[in-house]
């Protein structure tokens, strides 16, 4: 007969069971975390202090940087603690809390990328009316709408998780708490949870996916009709950074959650999870800063101002 004793403490499998790797991994990911915070915070500070960057495009970019800082702060500090102490235990309440914030930041970023696609569509396809359409009130309302939607979406999933009982001693095959892994250690009926995940992934996730990529069909058509080569090059450059971030985000997310045999965790899954949860928030500011001339110029101005102080 299966043991139905309710668990209040869960175990994370972590990145590695080898004691000799714990300290090197801790140092590497501590450096990654500090670089992530520094890169994203630098973008936020540049946007807030440079009047040339106080436009809708950079407002959304600054919001994305804040979400990346929040997302990395939910996963990496906990991972660093486990690497340092090698305990890898987490209370059920802390696990569900981590899931809440991870889902909130992921859905917020996913939705914000769709908003940024719309912003690029208006800027390129309706450039003469850009300031009338993408005024500050509209930008703020779009971001607020993203945050409220993400909060409500996350609450529905988390409230259903709180009704489950967890009694299996199987470790969560990850270095952070995630809904699919948590459902595997539940001894309750998880049919409703799984059904909700599938429905929301297809309807809401599919809808956000379409809203993110469909504008680029019109954008590319508009760019191809431009007679000036310089205008085409400028239009492509404003979209390339965003598209790169979108492909990285969706590519790693789709592999993490929808690849075949998702239950059979492997080293490849761990690597993809690290990239998805740890490296993506680091890569985003690098992509935008390296491919954006205006950000580079703003950074040079900021450095010159600091040197003259």
UniProtKB/TrEMBL annotation:
PROSITE patterns: G_PROTEIN_RECEP_F1_1, G_PROTEIN_RECEP_F1_2. GO terms for molecular function: G protein-coupled receptor activity; olfactory receptor activity. GO terms for cellular component: plasma membrane. It comes from Hymenochirus boettgeri. Belongs to the G-protein coupled receptor 1 family. It is a multi-pass membrane protein. It comes from the Eukaryota. SUPFAM superfamilies: Family A G protein-coupled receptor-like (SSF81321). The chain crosses the membrane at residues 25-46, 58-76, 96-118, 139-162, 190-223, 235-258, 270-290. It is found in: Cell membrane. The keyword Lyase does not apply. This is Olfactory receptor. Keywords: Cell membrane, G-protein coupled receptor, Membrane, Olfaction, Receptor, Sensory transduction, Transducer, Transmembrane, Transmembrane helix. It holds the Pfam family 7tm_4. Residues 39-288 form the G-protein coupled receptors family 1 profile domain.
């Amino acid at each position: 007969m299966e043991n139905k004793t309710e668990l209040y403490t869960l175990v994370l499998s972590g990145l590695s069971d080898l004691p000799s790797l714990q300290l090197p991994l801790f140092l590497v990911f501590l450096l990654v975390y500090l670089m992530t915070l520094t890169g994203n915070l630098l973008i936020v500070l540049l946007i807030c202090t440079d009047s040339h960057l106080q436009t809708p495009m950079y407002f959304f970019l600054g919001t994305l940087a804040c979400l990346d800082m929040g997302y990395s702060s939910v996963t990496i500090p906990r991972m660093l603690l486990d690497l340092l102490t090698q305990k890898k235990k987490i209370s059920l309440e802390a696990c569900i809390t981590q899931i809440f914030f991870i889902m909130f930041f992921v859905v917020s970023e996913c939705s914000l990328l769709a908003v940024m696609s719309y912003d690029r569509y208006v800027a390129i396809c309706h450039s003469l009316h850009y300031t009338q359409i993408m005024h500050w009130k509209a930008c703020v309302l779009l971001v607020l709408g993203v945050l409220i939607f993400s909060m409500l979406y996350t609450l529905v999933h988390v409230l259903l998780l709180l009704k489950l009982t967890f009694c299996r001693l199987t470790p969560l095959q990850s270095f952070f708490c995630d809904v699919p892994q948590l459902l595997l250690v539940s001894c309750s009926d998880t049919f409703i949870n799984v059904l909700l995940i599938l429905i929301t992934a297809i309807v809401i996730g599919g809808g956000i996916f379409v809203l993110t990529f469909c504008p680029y069909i019109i954008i590319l058509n508009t760019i191809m009709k431009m007679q000036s080569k310089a205008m085409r090059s400028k239009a492509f450059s404003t979209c390339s950074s965003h598209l790169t971030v979108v492909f990285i985000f969706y590519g790693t997310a789709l592999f993490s959650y929808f690849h075949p045999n998702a239950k059979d965790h492997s080293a490849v899954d761990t690597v993809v999870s690290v990239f998805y949860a740890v490296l993506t928030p680091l890569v985003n500011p690098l992509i935008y800063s390296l491919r954006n001339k205006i950000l580079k110029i703003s950074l040079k101005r900021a450095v010159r101002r600091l040197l003259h102080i």
